[in-house]
Amino acid sequence: MFTISKRRAVIALTAISSLIFITSCKNKADYQTTRKEVLALHDKVMADGGKAENEEMQFDSLLKSGLKQLKLNQPALDTAAARTQITTLNKQLGNADEQMGNWMHAYNSDFKGKTDQETVDYFVAEKGKISKVDSLYKDALRSADNYFKQLKIKPDSSTRMDSKMKM
User: Fold this and answer.
1) Is 17 a member of any domain?
2) pLDDT tens profile 130-159
3) Rounded to two decimals, what is the model's pTM?
4) Residues 13-65: tens digit of each pLDDT
5) What φ, ψ does residue 163 adopt, rounded to 5°?
6) Phi, psi of 164 (to 5 degrees)
7) Which residues of 37-66 are buried (b: 16+ CB within 10 A; e: fewer)?
8) What kind and span of H or E run contains 127?
9) Is residue 101 part of a domain?
10) Which residues neighbour 31 within 8 Å (Cβ) at sequence distance 6 or greater?
């Protein structure tokens, strides 16, 4: 009977040790997976940032001299209203850029002394933050693209930048 109890104890300890090991590996995998998701979303948002930058430049050109030419082609165009709308859209695009810069500045890749769970929690929070920035870009770009369509202007893709920054 003593050997049976000893055997059960060894089996129980082995099972508990295996469970702890598996749980530990699972947390580490979650950290890696979440980190990859955050960085992939960052790269996508950076590409949107490049598009936003180009659209801001195109709006700036319209404000400087393009509205006069546009008025010649579209006599019914209210240039004062267009100037106001373009300024608003540029601010929206600029706000998305600013929020992206703020996120990148606050991003921390040093996890020395942190537990796996703390690291997972950090990346889950960062994923939420970068998702909000992604939404800002999507909204700003959709509004800008719709306004370009309204003005019957094709957004200039000739100056698009590949803005994928690596973290």
Assistant:
1) no
2) 999 999 999 999 999 999 999 988 877 543
3) 0.75
4) 565 655 555 555 555 557 888 889 999 999 999 999 999 999 999 999 999 98
5) -100, 35
6) -80, 105
7) bbbebbeebbbbbebbbbbbebbeebeeeb
8) helix 116-150
9) yes
10) 116, 119, 120, 123
